[in-house]
Amino acid sequence: MTKVLRTLTVLFAVLGLTQAVQAAGIQLPVPRQTIPPGTELSHQDLIERKFPSRAAQQFAVAAHRSQVVGLVARRTLLPGQPIPVSAVEKPLLVKRGEPARLVFHEQGLMIIMQVEALQNGGAGSFVRVRNVDSGLVVSGRVQQDGSIRVEN
């Protein structure tokens, strides 16, 4: 009888630890409703939901709202599910095939020309562009205003 009581005591202790571990979870931002690709995420789109601590460690998911607010969904985000960091990106300021403005600035000399973007890009990313007149292909960094800056 004491062996049975001891076994039950151990079993209840293990169950109690399991519940304690589950209670010691982590709050992750999740979509409030289905978010289609191309939608910019705002604070109103997100709620907090508790997950086991290992969820954020096993998968590359956003741990804080600040990591995803202002970014654009690359694919459909489902309500109540953690947001993979690979499923969001910076908003595109330059789109492939569309005209863009290239700026070259050095020692007081500024040259601005019309180019065609060969790649999509958000602020801070490098993109290749083609000069509409000469066909010359160059790379530059996308600026916050959508222009592309070439540095020497």
Could you characterize what this model shows?
This protein has 152 residues and is an alpha+beta fold. Helix content is 18%, strand content 35%. It has two helices and eleven strands. It has helices at 2-23, 53-58, and strands at 26-31, 46-51, 72-73, 88-89, 92-94, 99-106, 109-117, 121-122, 126-131, 137-142, 148-150. The strands form four sheets. A five-stranded mixed β-barrel has the order 6-7-9-10-11. Strand 6 and strand 7 form a beta hairpin. The model is unreliable at 14-22 (pLDDT under 50).
Task: Record keyword descriptors for this entry.
two-stranded antiparallel ribbon; 11 strands; 152 residues; alpha+beta; elongated; five-stranded mixed beta barrel
